[in-house]
Small ribosomal subunit biogenesis GTPase RsgA (Actinomadura logoneensis), 360 residues
Amino acid sequence: MSSTFFLQDSPESEDVLRAYGWDEAFDDAFTAHRSAGLTPGRVARVDRGHATVVTADGWLRVAWSTADEPPCTGDWAAVRPGDQPELVALLPRRTAIARSSASRTSRPQVLAANIDTVVVTATLATDAPAGRIERMLALAWESGAVPVVVLTNADRSRRPAGEVRDEVAALAPGAETLVVSSVTGEGMDVLAAVLTGTIVLLGPSGAGKSTLGNALLGADVLATGEVREGDGKGRHTTVHRELVRLPGGGVLIDTPGLRAVGVHDSEAGVQQVFAEIEELAADCRFSDCAHETEPGCAVLAAINDGSLPQRRLDSYRKLLREAAWAASRHDARLRAERENQWKAIIRHQRATYKFRDKQL
């Protein structure tokens, strides 16, 4: 476990909150909480039953109840100060990265909230799996933040870095794709120039997220570990999502490596990742074309002439199916919750009538 929080300067005024992303919109949303005597703070880390929150008066370790929507790193919260400070409420999230939970339930796992830039990382020391990059990009676009693809370990690249960059850029229409090395400093100035606001690092173990984060921070704040030579996989040296202030402005959230990247209700994000397929589909003869055997399908025509790889279409279909499945599960859960609420109301009414009849 790292000690990130204790390596940062203690905040002394509300100006520090602005350094952590506080703005007029959040201030307006906090009006009712302020009237209730609560204090704003940003969640820097979440542990079991407690959260570490940065406020204008300092760092607080606050308790939080098991609410329907637990806090996550990056949330802005209303805190009741005192001897036993408590997290009372969360402000509406402006953006959020969410993936399907590991339990495969309908509830998503929120990885980070109120983010502005998502750094999708992949290492040049091994072959970057195209499907994984596409999945992480779908999560990034769906979050509402701006994705940037960063290919790390340029000093250890197995292939010409420019060649790999061009291949990955083809997977990420609309997003910048950069090549960097935390060891030599290659590309770090360009990366620092494009990162803004609250930045989250996303990628598998061994992709160099924490090493990249330390380079941006200018200090060895985040824990790092070795990777296996054979497959480039690393240990989960980052075990919590932590929010750290960057010396040049903005804040950084490091995340544990993601073994599984399940898309959750991310159809819009998938469509953004595969923008060239969406553009081709607009020229299909039928508006509901499934791009399988239909005549006049512009997507299949692109497959046949080689301008669209079959792997790309297969990945597009797979992610759309997952997104549709997640959406249906979410809708089913909401229906079940509404039914349970009505059942509870009916039980309460029956108990009330029964009690009233006994009093007559």
